[in-house]
Amino acid sequence: MIRLACPPQAWRLRCVAILAGLLAAPMAQAVPRCEMAAIAHCANASQLLRAPGFEEALGRVLDGRQVTWLARQRGVGDVVREVLSGAPDDATQVAHGLLRFSAVRAGSATERGAIFVSGDGTIAAIGVLHFNCAKRCDKTYSLSILVNHDDARPVALVRAWGAEQMALNRERGFEEDLAVIARVEVLTRQD
Q1: What is the pLDDT of residue 132?
Q2: At residue 69, does pLDDT exceed 50?
Q3: Which of the four pLDDT bands, split at 50, 70 and 90, describes residue 27?
Q4: Would you say 75 and 64 are in contact if contact means Cβ atoms under 8 Å apart?
Q5: DSSP bridge partners of 104
Q6: Of 96, 89, 85, 83, nearest to 146 (Cα)?
Q7: % residues pLDDT > 70 (the chain)
Q8: For residue 62, is pLDDT > 90?
Q9: Long-range CB contacts for residues 42-46, cutoff 8 Å, separation at least 24
């Protein structure tokens, strides 16, 4: 039993009204959680990186290869996480049942990443816009596309995302070198 202590007379009516309002208010509903099994609840790449099941899904696309995409040789998984570590864009539906999560690399307005995820939480493709640094860092973009198996559809979506990023660079007044993708590579998982 709830016992309410209200001051006499005039305040008693207010007190009863407040209590009635509290009892009539609906119970707070649980906010859906961003996770790979419920990808539609993820608003952006920042949430995706922290989503339960993300590392496992990423591991199904990536292998242990080392790349020189961000100035020094390192694991491709570390690079993907880094290019998605900065300011994220809102998740975008790019095809039926396929969402794109993209972001800029923290501390860099020019290097970017995108992950394309199906409704069941499967990563279809990953795109990384970077300056290849095998010997010295290039001055023009490379677009590296990672897919689980050779499939033209997700590759085309990553290419379209890359072209969209170049158009945005031109609109923002970036130098011409920063508005062209000079090299595209498609990498499939090597088991």
Answers
A1: 81
A2: yes
A3: very low
A4: yes
A5: 112
A6: 83
A7: 83
A8: no
A9: 42/91, 42/99, 42/101, 43/90, 43/91, 44/88, 44/89, 44/90, 44/91, 44/101, 44/103, 45/84, 45/88, 45/89, 45/91, 45/101, 45/102, 45/103, 45/113, 45/115, 46/84, 46/88, 46/103
Residue burial 29-40, b: 16+ Cβ < 10 Å; e: rest: eeeeebbbebbe
Which residues, 6+ apart, have CB-to-CB distance to 175 below 8 Å?
none
Domains of the chain as residue ranges with CATH: 39-188 (3.40.1420)
Query: What does the alpha-carbon distance between residue 124 and residue 101 come to, in Å, rounded to a whole number?
Result: 12
Q: Burial of 158 by CB count in 10 Å (0-12 exposed, 13-18 middle, 19+ buried)? A: buried
143 neighbors 127 (Cβ within 8 angstroms): yes
Instruction: Answer whether 150's CB lies under 8 Å from 73's CB.
Output: no
| Token pair 């990672």: residue | 146
pTM value surpassing 0.85: no
Contact 141, 181 (CB under 8 A): yes
> What's the CA gap between 97 and 39, in Å, rounded?
10
